Structures are given as structure tokens and as C-alpha cells.
Amino acid sequence: MFKRLKGFFGPTNKDLRRRLLFTVFALAIFSLGTNVVVPGAKTITKDLGFLELLNVMTGGGLKTFSIFALGVMPYITASILTQLLQMDIVPYFSELKEEGATGRQKINKINRYLGIAFALIQGFIFSYAFMKSYGSMTVLKSALVLTGGTAFLLWLGDEITKKGIGNGQSLIIMAGIIQGIPSVFVSAYNSFIGNSEFALWFGILALVLFTLVYLLIIVGVIWIQEAERRIPIQYSNRTASSYKGEKTYLPIKLNSASVMPVIFASAIIGIVSLIAEFVKNDKFTHIVENYISYTSWTGLVLYAVLIYLFGAVYTKMLMNSEEMAENLDKSHAYIPGVTPGENTSKYLKNSISRLTVVGSLFLIVLAIMPLIFTKISGLDSAVTIGGTGLLIVCGVCLETYKQMESSIASRSYTTSKRRRY
């Protein structure tokens, strides 16, 4: 690993360093934007409660009611909708899915348009909820500013993807969460040690346990992301002694969906919380606070179920067993003991399903572990949400590192090949 990182500063990786600097600069713009308040608005002083999730995802932008108060969550909502529509619900989206790269480009364009439409709706809801006393025109202007902020972030995310080091939308979400992590630990410190209700020794012990839970999340995410099952495959046009007897494997990750199920599940709960804030119905708000928000025990169960469902759906979309079996057949490869064709497809489907169950269960444990800890300890909602945020940050950081490592390795290989010839 350190050799690859050392190679990052080599003369052959000037373009990669430029991409990294561009990404840092773009994320710095996002960070500054979270402190630019919407004209005419004021910082929200009340406790956000079940809306704390949206505040964390936007780097505290909702609390300050900044121009980036919505973040890229409307785009995530649009992505969830289009991915569900691809599950043979709407034929048009199913056809786009089968078109490959061209279809993905069309779906991404639809996601952007839908994201901006959802941003306008969410922007109006927030503006109406927090600024309705300012007048209808102020509410409308505020909604347009919030929509423009989301549109700018979508453009910035695309630029990071093209000119930066990875998935721009995920990096923007990660940057927003990282901004709030220090305040999470400050709140935990004030709750445990600064609170006179606890003895000093008990507060220190609780804070240490709290930190250990976060370290376990980091270790767990790395383990899940790296774990894979290697299915041995054999090529019909190679002998057993070919390539010095090295075996060839088909790697299938334990958690192919990465942290996307957590992001999607959090987005769904955030949408329900947003509706509750707009409706202003005491009964509905009570239901959301006590049964749907994952600061409640029933909300934890719902959160776990959503993570599992999104993990299964997202993995099914990424890992198509029929296509994998077809690709093996085209490359004249087969799994020893399994007949090529339909039997191979069934074998891969069963393997992926079992791995998805195990991977999703581990992901659920990591997601709810800090929530249960803070639920028992009685910490505020900001600290509770911090565990989910850290899980997302670790997953995105690990994927970004892998992309950079792969890019460095490919550049080194290309350079050595040129020197050879």
C-alpha cells in the first residue's frame, strides 16, 4: 500500500495529482457554500429532532439554512425511484437498463431532471416550514435558491466525476458528513463528561466505549468491503499446467452494494421526516418521532429492514447471474462440477444471494450498533445520526482509495510497458 502511495508522488502521476487537487478544491467550495445563508433567512435555533439526518447529510446546511441545505439528497431520491422502476415495473426503464452504457447515460440524465424537480418540492417544503411567517414571495424565492443550490451541486458532482478522482455525488455526501463529525464527538463529550448527572469516571468510560464503537465501525466496513468469495473457474482452452499452474477465480464480494443501501434507507426515512415537518400534524409527527425515526426502537427495525431490502435489490441490479454465466461461456470458461449455461446461472445466483444475506446482516449490525448505544445512553439525536454518517464516510473513502490505487497501478504498468518496447 505504501509503495502505491509513494508512487502517487512520482513524475508519471501528475494528472492524478491534478485530479486530486481539483476534487479538494470542489469540496472546499461545497464546504464554504454550507455557510452561505439563504437571503432573508435566519439560522434555525430549535432542535431539528428527526430532521437531524438531513442536516448531517448536508454538512449542517439545514441548521444554518444555507444555499446547500438540500445537498444532493433530491438526486439520491430520484436515483432510488428510477432504480425501482427498472425492476420490470416500467418497460421503458427496463429497456434502458438493457441498453448498457447508452441506457445508463439516459437514466443519469433522467435522474438529474427528477432530482431538480424533487429539489424544488423539498425546497418549498423547507421554506414553508421555517419561513412561512416571512410571506409567500419570500418562501417562493427561498425555494428557488435552494433548488439552484442543489442544481449547482449536481453540476459540481459531475465535474468531480469527470475531472476529479471518483463519484462526485458520493464525495459530496461524504464531505458534508465529515464536517459534522467533530460536533458529534463534542456533543458526546458534553453529554458524558460535561453533564453533572454522570460521575467523572463513568463519563470517561462511556466516552471511551463510544469511541471504540466508532473504531469497530471503521474496521467492520473495511472487512466487509474487502471480503469476497472466490469461485474457481477453468478455461477449456488451457491445460492445468498453463501459467505455472496458477488457479483462476471469479471473485464475488460479500457486500457488492457497498454503503448504498445505508444511503438509500437513510434517504427514505429522511423523506418521511420531511413530510412530517411540512404537514405539521401532531398525530403524524408523533408517529414519525416514536415509530419511524430510527431514534425509536421500531424505527431501528424499519431501518434494518430497509437496509436489507435495498441491499438485495441493488446487488441484483449490479450482479446479474445470467450475464455472468453468458460471459463465462463466451470466454470458454466454466465452473468445475457445474454445467455451463442455466446451471451455472443458478449456481451463481444462489452464491450471490447467500453472500448478500450475510453482507447485508453485517451492514445492518454496523449501522444500528451506534444507534443502540446512544439509545441506551440517552444521547441527543445528533450523536445518534453520527454512526450512520461514519459508516457512509468509511465506505466512500475506501472506494475512492481503491480507485486511486487502481489508477496508480495501471499507470505504472503502462509506463513500464513503454520502457520495455
Task: Write a concise keyword list for the protein shown above.
three-stranded antiparallel β-sheet; 421 residues; globular; mainly alpha
Describe this structure in words.
By secondary structure, the protein is mainly alpha-helical. 73% of the residues lie in helices and 4% in strands. It contains 16 helices and three strands. It has helices at residues 2-7, 14-33, 52-57, 61-64, 73-85, 91-98, 101-131, 136-163, 168-192, 200-226, 260-279, 282-292, 297-318, 321-330, 342-377, 381-420, and strands at 228-235, 248-253, 333-334. It has a three-stranded antiparallel beta sheet with strand order 2-1-3. Helix 6 crosses helix 7 and helix 9 (168-192) crosses helix 16 (381-420). The radius of gyration is 24 Å and the shape is globular. The mean pLDDT is 77.
C-alpha-based Rg, rounded: 24 Å
The percentage helix is over 70%
Tell me what portion of residues adopts beta-strand conformation: under 5%
Which H/E pattern describes the elements?
Answer: HHHHHHHHHHEEHHHHEHH
Provide a count of the helices.
16
Strand order of the largest sheet: 2-1-3
- Assembly status: single chain
Largest beta-sheet details: 3 strands, antiparallel
If you average the pLDDT, what whole number results?
Answer: 77
Q: Give the overall form.
A: globular
Straight-line distance between termini: 28 Å
Stretches with pLDDT under 50, minimum 5 residues:
none
Q: How many beta-strand segments? A: 3
Strand-pairing-aware structural class = mainly alpha
